[in-house]
Amino acid sequence: MKLFSQFVDLSEDLLGLIYPKLCVSCENVLMKQEHLICSNCVIGLPRTHYHFVKDNPIEMIFWGRVKIEKATSYFQFQKGSKYQKLMHELKYKGMREIGVELGRKFGAELMQTNYFGEVDYLIPVPLHPKKERKRGYNQSLAIAEGMAQILGKEIRNDILFRQRYSETQTRKGRFERWQNVNELFWS
Predict the structure, then answer these.
(1) HEC string of the chain?
(2) With contact defined as beta carbons under 8 Å apart, do 124 and 144 qualify?
(3) How far apart, in whole angstroms, are the C-alpha atoms of residue 67 and residue 186?
(4) 167: pLDDT confidence band, cut at 50, 70 and 90?
(5) Which residues make Cβ contacts (< 8 Å) with residue 52, sequence separation at least 6?
(6) For residues 4 and 55, what is the distance between their CA atoms, to the nearest angstrom?
(7) Largest separation between any pair of C-alpha atoms in the chain
(8) How far apart are CA 187 and CA 180, in angstroms?
(9) Is the distance from CB of 131 to CB of 168 less than 8 angstroms?
(10) Distance CA 182, CA 166 (A)
(11) Cα(115)–Cα(52) distance, rounded to whole angstroms?
């Protein structure tokens, strides 16, 4: 058995010389223990740290619309950064596993803070069914799945619903995005 394991490792190493696994964000070669995103890119993520902020901007989106205990986001999107490619691959190129992997990493960080210690469920932000059919999956649900693996929390995607179809936000500024999500959700 040990000989077979060594053979598999050697085969993977040789294959890696010809077809190296690259970081989705920066395209550097991944080390053996890295998956999809290199350690340098994970360390450099522009984190929000909203899990340390009471009444953070993510929580405020849902005030008066849905009863939630806590809401947060892992990192801030920065247009033109190497993380833009990461999000583009997740949202538009079918790389659902990026969401799961980011969820695992975020879940591991949240485990250290006990931020979700008293929370019963993870509730991903829903897509309109039309948009979900077009993309093939909800990237928010993929992230929640990764978080659930680490946090041991149940995912409930039957609580929060998207009320109407909204136009894309890719060309909107911060204020326009805020207006676009106003009155989109109900529970």
Answers:
(1) CHHHHHHHHHHHHHHHHHCCCECCCCCCECCCCCECECHHHHHHCCECCHHHCCCCHHHHHHCCCCCCCCCCCCECCCCCCHHHHHHHHHHHCCCHHHHHHHHHHHHHHHHHHCCCCCCCEECCCCCCHHHHHHHCCCHHHHHHHHHHHHHCCEECCCCCEECCCCCCCCCCCHHHHHHHHCCCEEC
(2) yes
(3) 10
(4) low
(5) 113
(6) 54
(7) 62
(8) 18
(9) no
(10) 10
(11) 8
Q: Which two tokens stand for residue 55?
A: 């009444």
The span from the CA of 68 to the CA of 65, in Å, is 9
pLDDT: which is higher, 32 or 16? 32
Q: Cα-flanking dihedrals φ and ψ of residue 155, to 5°?
A: -95, 135
pTM over 0.70: yes
- The 10s digit of each residue's pLDDT in 139-154 is 999 999 999 999 999 9
Which of 160, 121, 128, 163 shows the shortest CA–CA distance to 144? 121
